[in-house]
Design goal:
The complex is a heterotetramer of chains A (391), B (167), C (103) and D (695). With 391 residues, chain A is mainly α. Chain A is 68% helix and 1% strand. Chain A has one domain. Chain A is built from 14 helices and 2 strands; from the N terminus they run H-H-H-H-H-H-H-H-E-E-H-H-H-H-H-H. Chain A has a two-stranded antiparallel ribbon. In chain A, helix 5 runs parallel beside helix 11, helix 7 runs antiparallel to helix 9 and helix 9 runs antiparallel to helix 11. The radius of gyration of chain A is 22 Å and the shape is globular. Chain B has 2 domains: 79 residues, NADH-ubiquinone/plastoquinone oxidoreductase chain 6, subunit NuoJ (Four Helix Bundle (Hemerythrin (Met), subunit A)), CATH 1.20.120; 44 residues. In chain B, helix 1 packs antiparallel against helix 2 and helix 2 packs antiparallel against helix 3. Chain B starts with a helix and ends with a helix. The model of chain B has no long low-confidence stretch (mean pLDDT 84). Chain D starts with a strand and ends with a helix. In chain D, 70% of the residues lie in helices and 3% in strands. In chain D, helix 2 packs antiparallel against helix 5 and helix 15 packs antiparallel against helix 20. A 3-stranded antiparallel β-sheet of chain D has the order 1-2-3. Chain D is built from 27 helices and 3 strands. The chains are: A mainly alpha (391), B mainly alpha (167), C mainly alpha (103), D mainly alpha (695). Chains in contact: A-B, B-C, B-D, C-D. Chains B and C meet through helix 1, helix 2, helix 3, helix 4 and helix 5 of B and helix 1, helix 2 and helix 3 of C.
């Protein structure tokens, strides 16, 4: 029973595919997967938006949206309808072609990430050998789209916002890659299913998730910071800094294109946190040995929603970083430590089993974090703000 | 050359042509990134999976952005082109390019025509590439690593905004 | 016409387009783009020869392409850096005006 | 000067206990020369210093000469003839070397004493004579120089050193003859003297060089290797020199030519009478005693060479030539002297004739005969000249005998020694030295094996000598005073030397009488014993009788013709009245000067003109031609430079430069054009490769 429940969707798709002629079956299976992903994640998007607004409200000691439907449940539906019906205003001087293309590219590249994501046991659309590389390749092209958006709307604020966004995404893409590389080094393969399989084992009741290893935890920390920056969320949401540059690169967008941007943003958040769970939180594997009977995909999506909650939580608490603080933090704190983490992972792998490697790796990482952290604190970046006026 | 490859080839060549012919610089940049993406797909079509993804990651991800940044920093997109986008001696350039294409095309048709290998699809795994990188190509890898660091530092220094200029 | 010849022809076409771009366009960045195109055409050649060559398992073609991509990226970075510094110095990106190295 | 060896002696000669004399022999000529150098540096008014310097130096030389003479005399007395030489290498050129040196032997000792003694007397005499002359110091400087040179000739052991001093003597004679160079006649006479002696010197030089080439050395005596020693002479005899002459004979003749020039023998005698233009002491010293004697001394010095090859008693062609020239000169000069009116010119011709006697004596009788007559002649001829000098001084520079006369009474201290001198010269028998020395020559002439000619010529000469001397004395001292003003006696400083010389003119004869032939023995290194047996030579007494007869005949004839008559200055001479054409010929000196003028001088003039023409036309033309060529060449190179080089080459370089410019344009700085060229090159390359591979 548990097995059937677990493989519910897989069996379902097989069943659907069986109706197709043999030649098309394989294509048909993939098509079904795509359709599922394209429908599932916007739904999750709606729920996430609601959660965010309700969560933020609660954090800020106020109710969230509670007018539309009982306890504001139908708010996302209202937003959706609003965005569809709103007039789509395109500035005259805007570069219409690029202006139109930008949101599309954003959304498409965001969704591409899910192709290689193992959402459950045997529930991966395409099991690429270089899955992680594919994911990062797709992730890299979002910057171009953001730039297209910013530039095409011929608006100072949007251009400035786009520039900031691109700079930020580029800066944090490197530590993102490096921290995930640690996982690749340990498992020895770029394929995400192998990574999850490597974590899907238990000693006693505790799972072999990478997060419970010193380098894993440090890596996850760096990964988390990079992801928040990569998706322009919470402390790093300078591009849409309302107070300074209106809505950043999607100022000139309205109506459905704006909704698309919004959707793109959230889907990117989902995919990047999904990657995080597969790399560090064991993907679809159960947290404890005795909970393996619960279907794998439930674990995947619960971890996913947990990450989203963390994002919302972060947004509610941390103040926005300044651009130079943000950049310095990336290049002077996150990048060096992720490089160090890579080294520590290498040492971890070759020190062999036994308690020495635990102590050694954790000691090294602890010392590094403390030293670099203090050094960062003392530097003026986080001190009072220094103004440079245009001469 | 399957249908898909033809399509992809068409996309790539179209992107290339657009990059060369378009007036607006940013459009050229985007066209060229399209060409890069098309090329990556061609690589995939040629079963060079790793190369394709690296192509996307490097070219579409980084170089395109770089080009765009360059365009913005040099304000090439706004300056009105008085003499037109093409240099005065564009015809000579065109002729030369055509000659080059003719020669290479002729060489290709005359030489490689005989080499028709219908070989099996080489199943290349990232594992193998890793082995190769760390095996036979470890020296080139180190050198490329060094080259990249030097290039980055060099580019930064060259393009850096000297202090005295600021005054 | 074998598939290999097809790919080679596409590469040649792409190469000559890149060359035409480099030769005819006034703007320095466009010349760099042209050069990038020519480089990519070369990579395509490599991969095509690797794929349809006698020993695909030797991976030489692909490895070569990968290294070439890496180097090309470095080159692009330095090239654009140069263009930016020239622009800052000479206030122009127009290639014809950058003839201070005249003989 | 590197004194190579002290002195090489003949083994059989053993020198005296004390230091060899030859070592300090060079001092004798050196002193007067140094003195002349110092006088030359003095200022003109420093008369006293000049006089003391020159007389003092000559006195020292005289002392040294006497010491040397005593040394030689001592050696001779011990029966060892002394010949000490001191030779040294003067020049060394590769293998050949030229040695100089000096020798002390009886011949040079005698000459040393004679020259220094007579010189000293003449120096003292000239103190008085030159008192009023403002160039007093210059006169004494030249005199000392002359004395030094003459002594150099005497002591030199090398023909080269002799030749050098010979030239110095010639120079000083020129300077002294032309002492009063303001007078054109004196200057001309000096020049004439110098040139005619030069003619003789050239032959002397030729002879010397020939001797050097044959024998390899110019030293007379060099321990057996000298040119006058037997070994060299045999070598010379062996070599033949054409015309039947041996090398020795030929060299001898050449050297005799030099001597003839200096001693005024027949062909080259013209300069001696004209040399009387110089001051009288000069004439006395140079043209009576020493310089003219140098020629005779030279022949005596090289006598072994001249005599080489003659069998016992026989004679060589060289000596016969000497004899005939000597005899001819003697007669010829005596004839001319008879018809002269100038007091000094008469004495000059008498000197020429006496030199002829000496040469003849050397030629026939050997060294001793010639040298004895030389010594005696030096004394009484110096006496006569100084006497004439004091007469001229007394008659206020009057030289023409026809304007003098009757000086016997107012110039007695001059007249007496002059008369003694005249008698000695004409050879008054028994008492005077002239008789014995002339007699020796006549004896030699009588015994001469070749011919009797010279004997008769010499006897006539003796007669004529007596005749013209009595003519002169009667004109000057007897008869009435025909000059203007009145003659006064010369001061003591001039008359004392006359007296001294007169004394010697008489006593010197004793040394050479047949009874006690000391002089001949001294020179020929034989013992001399005193015995009247000497007179018993066969025919000696007869010879003495004939010569005395000739002398008495001359004296008597002279007194008879001229006696105390003292004819007026304008009256023609007694002889002239008797035989006018003979007188004219004799008076004009046989027109020898005119002859030379017509022949030699004419020839030279023509030759000079020819040389001048040659130089101006031929060589000048060649130079002009060369100049023309050069200018043409320069013009040509300018032409080619402007048209060919500038035109062609430079223009070529310009083209190249422009071409360069063209090429430079390719570097246009536009990157795309470079890229285009690059691509084009690739295309071409590929095409070539394909085309070549296809083929």
């Amino acid at each position: 029973m548990v097995e059937r429940l677990d493989q519910l969707f897989v069996l379902l798709s097989h069943w659907l595919v069986s109706f197709l002629p043999a030649g098309l079956q394989q294509a048909g299976g993939i098509l079904i997967g795509v359709v599922v992903i394209v429908c599932l994640y916007p739904a999750l998007f709606a729920i996430a938006v609601l959660m965010e607004r309700k969560g933020l409200g609660r954090m800020q000691n106020r109710y969230g949206p509670n007018r539309v439907g009982p306890y504001g449940i139908l708010q996302p539906v209202a937003d959706g309808i609003k965005s569809l019906t709103k007039e789509d205003i395109v500035p005259l001087s805007a570069d219409s072609a690029v202006h139109f293309l930008a949101p599309l590219v954003v959304v498409v590249t965001s969704f591409m990430g899910f192709a290689v994501m193992p959402m459950g046991r045997n529930m991966v659309l395409v099991d690429l050998d270089a899955g992680l590389l594919f994911y990062f390749a797709m992730g890299a092209s979002t910057e171009l789209a953001v730039f297209m958006a910013g530039w095409s709307s011929r608006n100072k604020y949007s251009l400035l916002g786009a520039m900031r966004a691109v700079a930020q995404m580029i800066s944090y893409e490197v530590p993102l890659l490096l921290s995930s590389l640690a996982v690749v080094m340990i498992t020895g393969s770029l394929s995400l299913t192998k990574i999850v399989a490597a974590q899907n084992s238990y000693t006693g009741i505790f799972p072999h998730w990478y997060i419970f290893t010193p380098w894993g935890f440090a890596g996850f920390l760096m990964y988390a910071i990079s992801t928040t920056a990569e998706t322009n969320r919470s402390p790093f949401d300078l591009p849409e800094g309302e107070s300074e540059i209106v809505a950043g690169y999607h100022t000139e967008y309205s109506g459905f294109k704006f909704a698309l941007f919004f959707l793109g943003e959230y889907v990117a958040m989902f995919s990047i946190s999904g990657l995080g769970t597969t790399l560090f939180l064991g993907g679809w594997s159960a947290p404890f040995s005795f909970l393996t009977w619960i279907p794998s995909w439930i674990w995947f999506f619960s971890k996913l929603m947990l990450s989203i909650c963390v994002f919302i939580w972060l947004r509610g608490t941390l103040p926005r970083l300044r651009q130079d603080q943000l950049m310095n933090f990336a290049w002077k704190f996150v990048l060096p430590l992720s490089l160090l983490n890579l080294l520590v992972a290498a040492m971890w792998r070759f020190l062999g089993d036994g308690w020495e490697r635990w102590v050694f790796c954790s000691a090294v990482l602890l010392v590094a974090y403390v030293v670099v952290g203090l050094q960062e604190m003392r530097s003026d970046h986080f001190g009072p703000r220094s103004y440079r006026y245009v001469e | 050359m399957s249908v898909i490859s033809y399509i992809l080839a068409a996309i790539t060549v179209g992107g290339g042509l657009a990059a060369v012919l378009l007036k607006n610089m940013v459009h050229c940049a985007l066209a060229v990134s399209l060409a890069f993406a098309g090329l990556a797909l061609l690589f995939l079509d040629l079963d060079a999976q790793f190369a394709g993804f690296v192509q996307i990651l490097v070219y579409v991800g980084a170089v395109a952005i770089l080009v765009v940044f360059a365009i913005l920093l040099t304000r090439s997109s706004e300056t009105p082109k008085d003499g037109g986008v093409f240099s005065p001696t564009w015809l000579a350039g065109l002729v030369v390019a055509a000659a080059v294409f003719a020669v290479i095309g002729w060489a290709v048709l005359n030489s490689v025509g005989g080499l028709s290998y219908e070989t099996a699809v080489p199943a290349v795994t990232v594992q193998q590439i890793g082995q190769e990188l760390m095996g036979r190509y470890v020296l080139p890898l180190e050198i490329v690593a060094l080259l990249l660091t030097v290039a980055t530092i060099g580019a930064v220094i060259v393009a850096m905004h000297e202090k005295e200029d600021a005054k | 016409m074998t598939p290999l010849a097809g790919y080679l022809l596409v590469a040649a076409l792409l190469f000559s387009i890149g060359l035409a771009g480099a030769l005819t366009r006034r703007n320095a960045i466009l010349v760099l783009i042209g050069i990038e195109l020519m480089l990519n055409a070369a990579n395509l050649n490599l991969i095509a020869f690797w794929r349809y060559g006698p020993h695909p398992e030797a991976l030489t073609g692909m490895m070569f392409a990968i290294f070439s991509i890496a180097v090309a990226a470095a080159e692009a970075a330095v090239g654009l850096g140069l263009v930016i510094s020239i622009h800052r110095h000479a206030q122009t990106a127009d290639l014809d005006e950058m003839n201070r190295m005249k003989g | 000067m590197l004194i190579q060896e002290v002195g090489s002696f003949h083994p059989q000669y053993v020198d005296g206990p004390f230091v060899t004399v030859a070592n300090f022999l060079w001092l004798i000529p050196a002193l007067p020369i140094v003195a002349s150098g110092m006088i030359a540096l003095l200022k003109q008014p420093r008369r006293r210093a000049a006089a003391t310097l020159s007389i003092g130096s000559l006195a020292c030389s005289l002392l040294l000469a006497l010491v040397a003479f005593a040394h030689v005399l001592g050696g001779w007395a011990h029966g060892q003839a002394v010949r000490e030489t001191a030779n040294f290498t003067w020049l060394r050129a590769g293998a050949a070397q030229v040695d100089l040196g000096w020798v002390l032997d009886p011949l040079s000792a005698v000459m040393l004493v004679m020259v220094t003694f007579v010189g000293l007397l003449i120096f003292i005499y000239s103190l008085g004579y030159m008192e009023h002359d403002e160039n007093f110091t210059r006169f004494f400087c030249f005199l000392s120089l002359f004395a030094g040179a003459m002594l150099g000739v005497v002591i030199s052991n090398s023909l080269l050193l002799l030749f050098m001093c010979w030239e110095l003597v010639g120079l000083t004679s020129y300077l002294l003859i032309g002492f009063w160079y303001q007078r054109p006649s004196a200057a001309a006479a000096a020049k004439k003297a110098f040139l005619t002696t030069r003619v003789g010197d050239i032959f002397f030089l030729l002879g010397m060089v020939w001797l050097f080439s044959q024998t390899g050395t110019l030293l007379f005596y060099d321990g057996g290797a000298g040119s006058m020693e037997s070994e060299a002479l045999t070598g010379l005899l062996a070599a033949h020199a054409g015309l039947g002459l041996t090398a020795a004979g030929a060299i001898g003749l050449l050297i005799f030519a030099g001597a003839a020039g200096k001693s005024g023998q027949l062909p080259l005698h013209v300069w001696l009478p004209d040399a009387m233009e110089g001051p009288t002491p000069v004439s006395a010293l140079i043209h009576a005693a020493t310089m003219v004697a140098a020629g005779v001394y030279l022949i005596a010095r090289v006598y072994p060479l001249m005599q080489a090859g003659s069998l016992a008693g026989g004679t060589t062609t060289a000596l016969t030539v000497v004899t005939w020239v000597g005899a001819a000169t003697a007669l010829f000069a005596a004839l001319i002297a008879v018809a002269q009116n100038d007091i000094k010119r008469i004495l000059a011709y008498s000197t020429v004739s006496q030199l002829g006697y000496m040469m003849a004596g050397l030629g026939m009788g050997g060294v001793a005969v010639g040298m004895f007559h030389l010594i005696t002649h030096a004394f009484f001829k110096a006496l006569l000249f100084m006497g004439a000098g004091s007469v001229i001084h007394g008659c206020h520079e009057e030289q023409d005998v026809r304007r003098m006369g009757g000086l016997k009474s107012n110039m007695p201290s001059t007249f007496v020694p002059y008369a003694i001198g005249m008698l000695a010269l004409s050879g008054f028998p028994l008492l005077f030295s002239g008789f014995w020395s002339k007699d020796g020559i006549l004896e030699a002439a009588q015994h001469w094996s070749m011919a009797k000619g010279p004997f008769y010529m010499l006897v006539c000469g003796a007669l004529l000598t007596a005749f013209y001397m009595t003519r002169q004395v009667s004109y000057v001292f007897f008869g009435k005073w025909r000059g203007d003003g009145h003659a006064h006696e010369s001061p003591k400083v001039m008359t004392i030397p006359l007296a001294i010389l007169a004394f010697f003119a008489i006593t010197l004869g004793a040394v050479g009488t047949p009874a006690w032939p000391w002089f001949r023995a001294f020179l020929d290194d034989r013992a001399a014993e005193f015995s009247f047996g000497g007179f018993h030579e066969p025919g000696l007494l007869a010879l003495m009788a004939t010569s005395s007869l000739a002398v008495f005949l001359g004296l008597g004839l002279g007194w008879w013709v001229y006696g105390n008559k003292s004819p007026q200055a304008e009256e023609p001479d007694a002889l002239e009245r008797a035989a006018p054409p003979v007188w004219v010929v004799l008076h004009n000196k046989f027109y020898i000067d005119e002859l030379y003028g017509a022949t030699v001088i004419a020839f030279y003039a023509w030759w000079a003109k020819a040389a001048d023409w040659l130089d101006r036309r031929v060589w000048g033309g060649a130079v002009a031609l060369a100049a023309l060529l050069f200018r043409g060449g320069a013009h040509l190179s300018r032409l080619c430079d402007t048209y060919w080089v500038n035109g062609g080459f430079d223009k070529g370089c310009e083209e190249l430069a422009n071409g360069g410019g063209l090429l430079a344009r390719v570097q246009s700085g536009r990157v795309q054009s470079y890229l285009r060229l690059l691509a084009l090159a690739v295309v071409v390359l590929a095409a070539i490769l394909i085309w070549s591979s296809r083929g």
